[in-house]
Design goal:
This protein has about 350 residues and is of the alpha/beta class. It has 11 helices and 14 strands. The protein has helices at about 10-25, 50-55, 60-75, 85-105, 125-130, 200-205, 210-220, 235-250, 265-280, 290-300, 325-340, and strands spanning about 1-5, 30-35, 115-120, 135-140, 140, 150, 160, 165-170, 175-180, 185-190, 190-195, 255-260, 285, 310. The protein has an 8-stranded parallel β-sheet with strand order 1-14-13-12-2-3-9-4, with helices on both faces. It has a two-stranded antiparallel ribbon with strand order 5-6. A two-stranded antiparallel ribbon has the order 7-8. The radius of gyration is 21 Å and the shape is globular. The two termini are about 30 Å apart.
């Protein structure tokens, strides 16, 4: 893994940013978004996968209830109260906008104006950021009255017909993959439909009995953060379909994977990334550790991979790195954009 301290002398920073600018202007851009992207609205529970796996393997219903209730209260239910007009959401909206602006500058047909966003988050922050930026996106659903999900609905281009001669120009579009499901998903008769989540969330929230809570919680079309992730054949199938599509993108030539707020706790995703980093030398993984613990984990996980670039800010050798917040990420992406245009 190659490390770059962004707090450095002007010449070195110019070289570092310049390399990033060249990568973004000519590569297939993929973004991997984890739970830290949803802060401060939704909390991350660092060891929940280990705790929940142990509880379910031992069939300890009381402990399973305790952990799922904690997870629901901290990482799911607060989605009902998100302030989409506040500064915290503005940073998420701007992150998506800045990436879109970079891709919009492309004039070559060799690399399409497409951004692939993969996330394990259940919430609707990314969808809202896309819509408030007026960005066309594909999330696997087709239909307006009763939208139905299928991974066959990905892989489309958005083009606009210009002028009397009917010339086509490609518009920026986003493929959004919700790998662990979504609060908007409703499972019925082996299929997944799009539906507002508020009623289902409220039903779980108001349930006070242990078994009643676990039963209603299990009806959410999400994959729980535990090793035996799959509670239905439908979720199993859609998880692996999206994992396969993620793997295909990692094997494409000249590909960037920008990971933000992601812990790499998902073993399937990590295995695919590890394999792709070896088999595809044109793949570049960009990491932005939030804290010193993240940096140490990345050093251990990717220590043999020269096509992994890790960026952080560190002012003093004796001090830990600074928290790489979304605001800092946005400033960096704007700097990349200013060099690309």
């Amino acid at each position: 893994m190659q490390e770059f301290n962004l707090i450095c002398d002007k010449d070195l920073r110019t070289l570092t940013i310049g390399k990033m600018q060249r990568m973004f202007s000519s590569s297939n851009i993929n973004v991997l978004i984890g739970s830290a992207f949803s802060l401060p609205y939704l909390k991350t529970l660092a060891n929940i996968e280990k705790r929940l796996s142990e509880a379910m393997e031992s069939e300890n219903r009381e402990e399973e209830y305790k952990i799922k209730k904690e997870f629901f209260d901290n990482s799911i239910e607060p989605v009902r109260e998100i302030d989409f007009e506040g500064l915290d959401f503005a940073a998420k909206r701007d992150f998506i906008k800045f990436l879109k602006d970079i891709v919009a500058l492309r004039e070559t047909s060799v690399v399409h104006k497409i951004i692939n966003i993969f996330t394990t988050n259940y919430d609707n922050l990314i969808e809202n950021a896309l819509e408030r930026n007026n960005i066309d996106y594909f999330d696997g659903f087709v239909g307006r009255i009763n939208p139905k999900f299928s991974t066959a609905n990905y892989g489309k281009l958005v083009c606009r017909q210009n002028g009397s001669q009917g010339r086509l120009s490609e518009e920026v579009s986003v493929n959004l993959f919700k790998i662990h499901g979504s609060l908007y998903w409703r499972e019925e008769n082996g299929e997944i439909f799009f539906e507002d989540f508020k009623t289902r969330i409220e039903d779980v929230f108001l349930e006070t009995e242990q078994e009643g809570f676990l039963d209603k919680y299990s009806k959410l079309a999400i994959i729980n953060p535990e090793k035996n992730k799959f509670n239905s054949t439908v979720m199993n199938s859609n998880y692996y379909d999206q994992i396969r599509m993620f793997a295909n993108e990692m094997e494409r030539q000249n590909t960037i994977l920008l990971a933000f707020g992601f812990s790499f706790a998902d073993e399937h995703l990590l295995q695919i990334i590890d394999r792709a980093l070896v088999s595809n030398p044109t793949l570049t993984l960009l990491l932005f550790p939030y804290c010193e613990d993240d940096l140490e984990r990345f050093r251990k996980t990717f220590k043999f991979n020269n096509n992994v670039y890790c960026y952080y800010e560190k002012r003093d050798v004796a001090e830990p790195i600074e928290n790489f917040s979304l605001d800092k990420m946005n400033k960096l992406v704007v700097e990349i954009y200013n060099g690309v245009k």
